[in-house]
């Protein structure tokens, strides 16, 4: 065992945000690192809505936006409750949004963004191998010692699993159970080409600035999930997300939900005349703190989506900032382990401690009621309908005497939901916050 | 916007296809319609569908999301692996 030659100090499986972030930090500290990515290039298998909250990458590459392929900086937020023919929107635009690098968020496209981050890892000294699928994790005497791909073995002092939401490798060695339908949602997205000028005009944006727009209700036909729109430089990302445990709530399929969302009267004018240039699909971890697997064992750490690190609050969706932070903390842990020459579970448990002290676990802990809220039917079915009903009344003048808005609101709520359901929904909302 | 079929949308994507080996093993003999319905509704690439009333599956065009495995592992989906390196979809936008 002591005779074994290592191919690297650390092997990282997966060249996404967690994997490349870890690689940069490790290589900067002088450790030898190999990243193994199954795609043609880093990012080839990855997809986001999506928006990256930049704070965690700032710690690794300060002012990264000056050199990274970001699409737009988010200066406008929009949330909509949609019915078949209506949309109640809340918009927020402010100089406070993305006012400094530490609170800025950006739209990104992963194929481009991840390739750039992989280049940064290479510049730092990491070796990136693409087009190779890791088939097995090699475990000896209960300790993870290497990886195997197509009969070839590679050994390292430690392995970081950064292989995404479908981490079959973490499952293979028993650190993670098979995903349950209530824990994940499927996302389907079209990247739609328009010109930069048309996007600026339609979304009322200044050059380089962007909108993040989330919606619930009609896009998923009342099913758990929602629709999203993000403005990129000269494309718009339009997609839907549907929780797997609620598939079959209606007879509308996921691809049909996406078409339905694109054709919605509140959405269609924004993308009119656009040309779809890519269609993508991916799973999204949605159960937050409840689905975190074992994070460390002898010789191995699990990061990012592979560890289910994601939260969806309805108005903010986060995962990429967690992935980057978890990659960084995994790297810091291994740097210390390398110094003392001890990669045992006891030493690597520092990774979990660091995560618990960081925003990653604190934020997931802080919103542990959200996954329950997001399986509350009222939010997706009754709430958009009530909102539509009340808004229609509020904004309509037709010469008929008005019976009083408050009475109408009470009647409208009573029409859609029982007192019991209403109390449940409000309780769920209060608990979630 | 012009409406596109899922097939047309997938036609816009870059795939390196392995015509010989499927990375998903599907039980096409399954008669549990409720189980089949979930896969037909959920798969973003419409890999699962009824053709002339018969349940059918094609891994070509698979976006590798894992939805079918999570919904029906050990039932209709008997095996699910990632395609070999370089095989499958390569997102150019993502």
From TrEMBL, chain A:
Superkingdom of origin: Bacteria
Transmembrane residue ranges: none
InterPro entries attached to this UniProt entry: ETF-QO/FixC_UQ-bd, FAD/NAD-bd_sf, FixC-like, FixC-like_C
PROSITE patterns xref list: PROKAR_LIPOPROTEIN
Keyword Methyltransferase: no
Alphabetic keyword roster: FAD, Flavoprotein, Oxidoreductase
Cofactor(s) demanded: FAD
Every ETF-QO/FixC ubiquinone-binding domain range: 214-281
Domain FixC-like C-terminal: residue ranges: 377-426
Membership in a protein family: Belongs to the ETF-QO/FixC family.
PANTHER family: ELECTRON TRANSFER FLAVOPROTEIN-QUINONE OXIDOREDUCTASE YDIS-RELATED (PTHR43624)
Protein name per UniProt: Electron transfer flavoprotein-quinone oxidoreductase
Protein's organism: Frisingicoccus caecimuris
Lineage, highest ranks first: Bacteria, Bacillati, Bacillota, Clostridia, Lachnospirales
From TrEMBL, chain B:
Domain of life: Bacteria
Molecular function via GO: iron ion binding; iron-sulfur cluster binding
Transmembrane annotation, as ranges: none
UniProt xrefs under InterPro entries: Fd_FixX
UniProt keyword terms in alphabetical order: Electron transport, Iron, Iron-sulfur, Metal-binding, Transport
Name of protein: Ferredoxin-like protein FixX
Record lineage: Bacteria, Bacillati, Bacillota, Clostridia, Lachnospirales
